[in-house]
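Quick question, first post here. What does this chain look like in 3D?
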Amino acid sequence: MPTLAFLANLSTAEHKRRWDLLNEHAGPGVNIVVADPTASPGEMIEALKDADAAIPWLASIPLEVAAQLPNLKLVQLLTAGYDSVDVIGLKKLGVSVANNGGSNAISVSEHTMTLMLSVYRRMMEAWTNTVDGNWRDGVDQLPVRTEINGKTVGIIGFGNIGRQVARRLSGFDCEVLYHDLVELMPGRDQELGAQAVDLDHLLRISDIVTIHVQLNSSTTGLMGTREFGLMKKTAIFINTCRGSVHNEVDLIKALQDGEIAGAGLDVLEQEPTDPNNPLLSMSNAVVTPHWAGGTGEGNERAVVFALSNVERLAEDRKLLSIVDPASIF
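> Answer (accepted):
Ran it through. C-alpha cells below.
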C-alpha cells in the first residue's frame, strides 16, 4: 500500500478542501497522511518517513529532508507551475517531480477572459462607483469602454492553458496569434484557428497580449521595457502565469506613461504584494490574488490526476507529466 503525504497547513479552508478531496477520491489501497510544511526538518522527516509520494500545497520539501526519505520517489504537484520545487536537486536524489497535466487549464483560461473583459469594460471602477453610492456619476467621464469582438489577441505560450484561452476566444470573433518558446509539434500552426508568429510581430499587432508560460531562466523578465514598447498604445497586457515573467517596474512605467492602455494581473513579482504597490491604485489595472486556478472543478481534476499518478507509481507504470530538469533553463 503506497503512502501519500500531503504537505499543507490544514488551518485554512483552501488547504482543507484539497485534503478532503484527496480522502474522498483515494481508494482503499492508498494510505494518506498529512505533514506540516512549517515543522522543523526533524519533524518533517518523521512525518514523511514512510512516504512513497508527496503532494505539497503552497509548500516544498527541503532537499535535506528529501535526502532522508528512502521511500520517496515522486513529488506530485497540484499546479501547472513547478518553480517552487527544486526539480534538479530532487532528481539527483532519485525523486521525480510531476506537475498537473493541465487540470487547471480551464479555470485559468476562464479567469484570463475575466481579466480581459474587466480591463476592457472598466469593471472595477464601475463596481466601486456603484457600491459607493455614486451610480454613474463619474464613470460616464471615463474613457469609452471597449469590446473584445474583432480584436487581435496574441497568446504567448500555447500549452494547455494557452490553447484553452484560444478556445474561449472563438466565440468573440477574434484573430488569434500565438508564440511559443518551445518548438511545437508539426501541424500545431492554425490549431484552434490560431496562427504561429514570432514574438515581436505578435507584440506589435495584438490588441490584447496574454501570457501563459512556465517560469524558468528563459522566461524570467520576458516582458520588460522593450516588449511593452513594441505593443500598441491601445493594447492591454494579461498575466495569469507567474509574476516574474513580467518586469513589474517596467510594467508600472509602461502603464503610467501610456505605452500600453491597461493590464489584468493574477500574479505579481512579490506575493502577497506590498499594499502600496502602484498597480493596486491604477485605474487601468485589475489585480487579483493569484487564484485563477482555484475553482472547485479544477481542484477536483488536480486531485484525481495526482492520485492516478500515485497509483501508477505503486504499479511501476510510466508516470505522467514528469517535469524535465532541462526545462528549468
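The longest strand covers residues 3-7.
The CA atoms of residues 252 and 279 lie 7 Å apart.
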